[in-house]
Amino acid sequence: MGGPILDIRGLEKTYKGGTKALAGVDLTINKGEIFALLGPNGAGKTTLIGAVCGLVNPTAGSIHAFGQDTAKNWREARRKIGLVPQELSFDMFDKVIRQVRYSRGMFGCPPDEARIEEVLRSLSLWDKRDAAIRELSGGMKRRVMIAKALAHDPELLFLDEPTAGVDVELRRDMWRQIDALRAAGVTIILTTHYIEEAEEMADRVGVINKGRILLVDDKEAIMAKLGRTEAHFTLAAPLAEIPAAFAHYPLTLEDGGLRLIYRGGDGTGKGKREVAELAQTLAGAGVAYTGLETRESTLEDIFVDLVERGEVEAAA
Ligand SMILES: Nc1ncnc2c1ncn2[C@@H]1O[C@H](COP(=O)(O)OP(=O)(O)OP(=O)(O)O)[C@@H](O)[C@H]1O
């Protein structure tokens, strides 16, 4: 992975009417990475993307893209940036291929029919190239949005909720497309509500809420730092209390003493190890169990936890 391709410092945006959508965002994106920006509705994700793409005028702070200060020279930076916005936007009566060609030209790239064909084929749009956009299904329209964003061969691609409301097949296609772009060295920033998407695709994850970045880290590091193991032992007979020999484990008794629950670990495997120890030693200590269910926390658990904790801290 390369050096910084995007550097955002102290970015703030207050809309007319007073909504503070960004409240001091610092974020550095490295060349070649896939960065997932997670956050609930209204967190400021679209505003942040808009600020980098020159669609939103920041109230304070700075953005450097490809080493250029976008406040001074956003056109130069914008040429190297592709944006697939959340909303569909194009001339519905125009033909697919013309819209894609037009996008390429708009960013000052010379015509290149071979490249246009390649982009259309990669998105399974080649057969539809002469169709008017309004004749296409919703999923196909979304593909056209991506084709348009790729037509000028951007080095940095923003995907704002690329798979919101699309079917499973199209979502898988998009993941494949993102993989291919990653292989070609394109840096990708995607926003999503689908945590599984971030879990599947991203190298790094940032969590944003109320215009503030709560956390940025490697996906693996987040899982390791904040991952938890939960294990439920269904006991053969109720326990009145946790035996002293197991007091050093993070255990609780529920269901009138019939369920022994382990909640702990740190994502480094400690949780699994401790649960395995318990599974082996409980019976020997006279605690028989008839069932064991375990689960590891997902990025979704971590995200919900962080946002809730962030809200608690903000309210405190
Ligand atoms: N043009 C605008 N004028 C006034 N307020 C706006 C405007 N655009 C966004 N906002 C407000 O700014 C805040 C952040 O919105 P933004 O669209 O950036 O969030 P988001 O994280 O992209 O949300 P979602 O996941 O719902 O798309 C919200 O409170 C929103 O209502």
From TrEMBL:
UniProt xrefs under PROSITE patterns: ABC_TRANSPORTER_1, ABC_TRANSPORTER_2
Pfam family membership, one: ABC_tran
Molecular function terms, GO-annotated: ATP binding; ATP hydrolysis activity
InterPro entries in UniProt: AAA+_ATPase (IPR003593), ABC_transporter-like_ATP-bd (IPR003439), ABC_transporter-like_CS (IPR017871), ABC_transporter_ATP-binding (IPR050763), P-loop_NTPase (IPR027417)
Keyword ATP-binding: yes
Alphabetized UniProt keyword annotations: ATP-binding, Nucleotide-binding, Transport
SUPFAM superfamilies in the record: P-loop containing nucleoside triphosphate hydrolases
Residues annotated as domain ABC transporter: 6-235
Domain of life per record: Bacteria
Gene3D superfamilies noted in UniProt: P-loop containing nucleotide triphosphate hydrolases
Official protein name in the record: ABC transporter ATP-binding protein
